[in-house]
Amino acid sequence: MTRVQKIVRNFLENIKGQDVLEAACGCAEFSVCASAYARSVHCIDLTNSRLLDSVAGCPNLTFQIMDAADMFYPSGTFDTAVLYNAVAHLGIALEQVLEECLRVLRSDGVILMISSFKMDKNVIHEDVIPFLERNELIWESGEVSPFLYVKIWKDQ
């Protein structure tokens, strides 16, 4: 089992039969794996230059070039939004991306922020958790080796 398969299976309750968004998807490795379980998966990034060829073989997976800080999805479109190994790449747009992810979630939706990268883990501790606390969001964090995750509820 690959690392991405392990983490997708760990969060099946938030993926299986759900409408999933992967923001800042990079190669879309998470999206490809999640598409085996989800009702639909939409993955977005600023470019398609890193996209895996296997994306084309997933009938319920849609890739779009889109800025995660300014999505054109309607509010309440997705059950789950995922940021997989992407947090450190967001830079100054991090808070805006989190706000956009919350906006496009349904009222009972969750954000899954998942990373095995040290640089992401630092950003999670230094920037994400203080943002969540300032905004009084409900969240939990944990580890599924080698991953650190933060699960953020829109409403609870």
From TrEMBL:
UniProt lineage: Bacteria, Bacillati, Bacillota, Clostridia, Lachnospirales
Signal sequence region: none
Molecular function terms from GO: S-adenosylmethionine-dependent methyltransferase activity
Protein name: Class I SAM-dependent methyltransferase
Any Pfam family: Methyltransf_11
Keyword Transferase listed: yes
Family annotation (Gene3D superfamilies): Vaccinia Virus protein VP39
Domain named Methyltransferase type: residues: 21-112
Membrane-spanning parts: none
InterPro entries membership: Methyltransf_11 (IPR013216), SAM-dependent_MTases_sf (IPR029063)
GO biological process: methylation
Keywords: Methyltransferase, Transferase
